[in-house]
Amino acid sequence: MRLFVIGASGGVGRCLLERGAARGHAITAQSRSGNGLVPGAALHVVKGEPTDAPFLRQHMTGHDAVVFCLGIDSRAPTTLFSDTTAAVVEAMDAAGLRRLVAVTGIGAGDSTGHGGLVYNRIIFPLFTRNRYLDKDRQEGMIERSRLDWTIVRPAPFARTSGAGPLRVVTQIPPGLQLRRVTRQEVAGFILDCLEKVSFLRQKPFIGHE
Q1: Are the C-beta atoms of residues 96 and 149 closer than 8 Å to each other?
Q2: Do 59 and 6 contact (CB within 8 A), yes or no?
Q3: How far apart are CA 185 and CA 207, in angstroms?
Q4: pLDDT in tens, 18-50
Q5: What is the DSSP track for 127-194?
Q6: Which of 61, 28, 71, 25 minimizes the C-alpha distance to 194?
């Protein structure tokens, strides 16, 4: 496939570029600066703002799918995710693209409170709450679109995966706590969703207990 990746210079984005190339896909990587991204036979880098719909439309045309894995570190209130989503939906509609996989995370929608004690009690209220207020807006915009979307909600990121297989749920049962997942696992799951055309219009919550 030809994939257009938004947020390609982030942690999940870089893993996706590596794994996607290894699986034989051609990737166009959007980045504001392009820092650390080296173009190659399977990788084309385009520099521009993710909220710029004309820029996105210009470079998305001719691709098979879009992956949205943009991230931020700030604790402050933000509209980056919803603003980018508005531009992405507009650009995809104009370019005639339908397949979108977007990464939000633990704290969006009904995944709130399912990330383990440390995340639920410390990280979410002190560090990530504001970004997830906007990611809730982002998810609503994607769900209302005409796109063939999948929203991936990873557990808290960790350097090593947990014991046992990756858990994937679309209906979160009471009491379930997914405490960790690696960025490599998330990238692999995204590619599986694209290659198998799976989890259409679903919001899989993924990780290890």
Answers
A1: no
A2: no
A3: 9
A4: 999 999 999 999 999 877 898 998 999 999 999
A5: IIHHHHHHHHHHHHHHHHSSSEEEEEEE-SB-SSPPSSSPEEESS--TT----BB-HHHHHHHHHHHH
A6: 25
Quick check: 134 and 79 in contact, CB under 8 A? Answer: yes
Chain centroid to Cα 64, Å, comes to 16
Q: Which CATH number fits domain 2-207: 2.60.120.340, 3.40.50.2300, 3.40.1360.10, 3.40.50.720?
A: 3.40.50.720
Decide: helix, strand or coil at residue 206. Answer: strand
**Could you tell me the two tokens for 29?**
């990587």
Please give the backbone phi and psi of residue 173, each rounded to the nearest 5 degrees, phi first.
Answer: -75, 150
Give the pLDDT confidence of 57-82 residue by residue, as tens digits.
Answer: 999 999 999 999 999 999 999 999 99
Cα–Cα distance for residue pair 47/116, rounded to 1 Å: 37
Threshold 0.85, pTM exceeds: yes
Whole-number Å distance between alpha carbons of 12 and 35: 15
Structure tokens of 201? 């219009």
